[in-house]
Amino acid sequence: MRKLTLKYGKAYTELSIPEKNLYAILSPMDLEKVADDREEVKNALNNPIGSIPLKEMAKGKKNVVILASDITRPSPSHILLPPIIEELVEAGVKYDQITVVFGLGYHRKHTEEEKKKLVGEQIYHKVKCIDHDINDCVYLGTTKRGVPVEVFKPVTQKDLLIATGNLEFHYKAGYSGGDKALHPGVCSKRTIETNHEMMIQPGTMPGKADGNPMREDIEEAGRIAKVDFIVNAVLNNNKEIVKVVAGDPIKAHREGTKYIDKMYKRRIGEKADIVVASCGGYPKDINLYQAQKGLENASFAVRDGGSIILLAECRDGLGEKTFEEWMLKAKSPHEPVEWIKKDFILGAHKAAFICAVLERAKVYLISSLDKDFTKDIFFTPAVSAQAALDEALSEYGDQAKVLVLTNANSTVPYVE
């Protein structure tokens, strides 16, 4: 018998699995942080991937725009921006010719203090720092998938565009980083919504860039808007920099994804009958809306007709109003899957993604949610992970394969 301790909320839960049934335990493998963050950025700038050096590219430029992530993202802009701006100034660009634009997407505007915190005191006082405005965008063209590319007006007036950000899995666009700083970062509501509708298309999943329609559309928008150069930080689970990549928006991005894959992508020989998935504890399982990432990743490892045992405390309930409305008004898991095809609504999209998993697997939910409420949203409640596992093993028999994800929100299993 193998005894495991898994994170659940701010605590832990114990689980015993018969050795004969234990197929695999998949966990992230964080890389160590670099010795010197600033030197790592400088090294990336001095060794660009698929591009001439930024200093060379910046010569003669009069209006440089740097895209930076907003306060909701872990991108270390205060570390990335100083060496970038140093390079620009050495190339002859003046401080008053540099604008940092924070990509808000749908998010709220920053306070001046938040802007200062994001870029650091010195940069804040040397260059212009502004928020993207979703209502002040200019049409630049349409992608081959029919998405209108409407970009924040000041970004379109640049003669050099640099995108910064952090690299991590994105549950539908494959990865963050690269051209995502532009789209959805600094685009219009119409552009963002039209691209987000691609989430339901085949091929959209974490850990897949090439052949992912959503990612490819984002990158086509990047070419239309002429993103010239990217600087992306790869972070581990502690939000420490393990690698910085710089250069061509596609080539440098793909190099960076290799480090994400090494830490968080895990190969399996075949899908399991039962997948036990801990989201990774608080705050990753603070609500079902966040825990959806762990459920989605678990779904890549379970066979059709199998069972997932999801450990997600959900101390804040479902976590999003529209998501909750869709989950509660549906009479079957099939309904949200069909509704989203006719009317794509952000928030509701996660109800459709959860229900798509519920259609192909039985999902036990170990949470603080009321038992009847859990049933109302099509999950199977269980008093503990052990009780759910025992029930699933009795259903699938002695030879059932059990796979465990110790940190499901950030681990992507794939069959090769």
Task: Kindly summarize this structure in a few lines.
The protein is α/β, with parallel strands linked by helices.
Summarize this structure as a short list of keywords or feature phrases.
single chain; 416 residues; alpha/beta; 2-enoyl-CoA Hydratase, Chain A, domain 1; Rossmann fold; 2 domains; 6-stranded parallel β-sheet; 15 helices; 20 strands; 26% strand
Describe the structure.
It contains 15 helices and 20 strands. It is α/β, with parallel strands linked by helices. It has 2 domains: 2-28 and 269-415, LarA, C-terminal domain (2-enoyl-CoA Hydratase, Chain A, domain 1, Alpha-Beta Complex); 37-264, Rossmann fold. Helix 10 packs parallel to helix 13 (348-360) and helix 12 (334-342) crosses helix 13 (348-360). It is globular and about 70 Å long.
